[in-house]
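User: Structure with cytidine-5'-triphosphate, tokens only please.
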Amino acid sequence: MTNCQAKHIVIGISGGIAAYKTLTLIRLFKKAGCEVKVVATRNALEFVTPLTIETLSQNKLCSDLFETGFEHSVQHIAMSEWADCLVIAPATANLIGKMAHGIADDALTTLFLAFKKPIFVAPAMNHDMYRNPGVQENIEILKRRYKDLHFIETRTGALACGTEGDGRMEEPENIFNLVCSSFHQGGDLENVNILVSAGPTYEAIDPVRFIGNHSSGQMGIAIADEMADNGANVCLVCGPTHLTCHNSNVSRINVSSAIEMRKHCVENAQNANIIIMAAAVADYRPAVVASQKIKKSDENLNIELTKNPDILLELGRNKKENQFVVGFALESENEIENAKVKLHNKNLDFIVLNSVNNPKAGFNKPTNQVTIIDKDGIVLQGKAKSKEDVAKDIVNLIIKRYNNMFK
Ligand code: CTP
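Assistant:
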């Protein structure tokens, strides 16, 4: 079994003679048990035919942005959600230029702009074109701008135009191996069960109103995805949010209130090896939920609140011998000290600290900046990054520590 099995791969083909080798690449992914969909530029189809591509990939080819007949009408968006990665081979000088400058004038370039998961780019062109300063500058832009873009350097050798030099596309077998090995970068989590909570909780006041908070769930969802990308069995207990997981292996339970979240967390903690409580659980809920919509009558309305269960406290105190428990802390003052108190009181292995005062961190921001603390002190003082990148840092640290302790 390869790391690639059951992965969803989108292969992008642009118009170069190396496109014939991409047919081998499609076959390699299919043989490894992947689902493959192909997006080709119009020029690519001068070199390889739709019939060959569709026969090998066993899926409908996408080459026209306005073509109908697909399951989803906005094909490039649906595909970017469906895929685990995008492999562009060959990438011509023209395509690289368009990608570097945000030009989207066909199915492949539009998909590229919308794509948020790992992208592999294998260029192929004549040696002089490849060395052209404009092309080199575009390659530098791509490498600098897209952290999740893996540039597969060209080979030196005989080129189709009859000359020798660099510019030859990497061999399909090597591209295939590179893509496969990327699926297990953070560590091997096969057979490891992970419980992640994410999002806010909504505490009902009456049938139409609730007490909630601004958590979007993005951080917890990114952690769940990252864990699943590393091969773990992930159960995500998620409060109300419109955000979705990119990894279809995450098994998600949607909840609304803290009481519901507690029920599913406690149930799923039984078999969990690692527990990560990233949800912003409401500390209080209305003591009584009105059965009818509350009418406006008096000048003041008092709602009595009662304390919600502290889910993490319960999970930490009942922690099993081989369990690793991670909590989050959102603090506005004495941040490190307060986080350490929570780490101790809730019997945690790690606490991930967010500061309310940091403009690059917190609810509804695309970035986050965290400090991770264990019982001996600070383990990581992170930089401000996208929440996906912060999730990678958190997950890599957890995996390392978990493997050291229990494997
Ligand atoms: N948490 C929980 N259940 C609650 C409240 C919080 O499981 N009822 C978890 C959160 O998911 C987080 C951690 O506890 O992982 C810390 O949450 P935070 O809101 O920072 O702290 P609290 O423990 O609620 O304490 P306080 O609000 O007084 O700072």
